[in-house]
Amino acid sequence: MNRFNFIGTDVDILTYDELFATCHDWLQNKRARSRHVACVNVNCAVECYLRKDVRDVFSRADILGADSMPFVYWIKLLTGKKCDRLYAPDIILNLGKIAVKRQYRIYLYGGAEGVPEKMKRSLENRFPGINVVGAYSPPFRSLTPEEDAEVCQMINDTQPDYILLGLGSPKQDKWIQDHLTSIPGTVMVASGAAFDFFSDRITQAPVYIQRSGFEWLFRLTQDPKRLWKRYTLYNIIFLWNFLLQVLHLKKFERMDVSSR
Known about the structure:
Blueprint: E1 3-6, E2 9-12, H1 16-26, E3 35-40, H2 42-50, H3 52-59, E4 63-66, H4 69-79, H5 88-102, E5 105-110, H6 115-126, E6 131-136, H7 145-157, E7 162-166, H8 171-178, E8 187-190, H9 194-198, H10 207-212, H11 215-222, H12 224-246
Parallel strand pairs: 3-4, 3-8, 5-6, 5-7, 7-8
Antiparallel strand pairs: 1-2
Helix pairs in contact: 2-3, 2-12, 11-12
């Protein structure tokens, strides 16, 4: 699989067709460990740059999708390869169409109380015939080992093909890595704010803003107190380091993805 490095984070160069073809192949073995699909944006790349523990989590993901229009633009410009923005809400919309056709079973895990249930209804309205087999909002605190075992059993009992996670980054990616074997045979997609978008808890940016590369600015105006660090300081850190990388003035170690 082709990859492009952004300040030390290796992003897979993929289209949606390639993503879902790969996932379909994985799902042929329901006894195998589950697979981790992560969506990587500037915030994730900077977190990986600043924190080894976060980098270790993302380096073990099976797919690191380019969840940023600037990432997509740079990949196309510098490699000439076709690449889609693997943006969690769009992954879910594409999955919805495929899931109805292939009868995939989908589980929703995460979001605030009541959010996954609202998202379930939203998906059922958008995609008649879709099989959303469960929706659960875990407590905000860490689960005890006994509680975690109960959650795993609850999810396994529904025999899902896809598990959509809405726990926020990097918490959702850490959760996925911790449950790849205890919940086998699935594709786990880190979906973040998609839970809030599909439940109408937060307004999603219009499509033209998403495609412009300025969705971050739209989201910043919605929740500046929580997001200011992510969309100001982190953007500056990324741009400075990526400039040095492009000019070959600073080298960044590639991720060890041999375990994928």
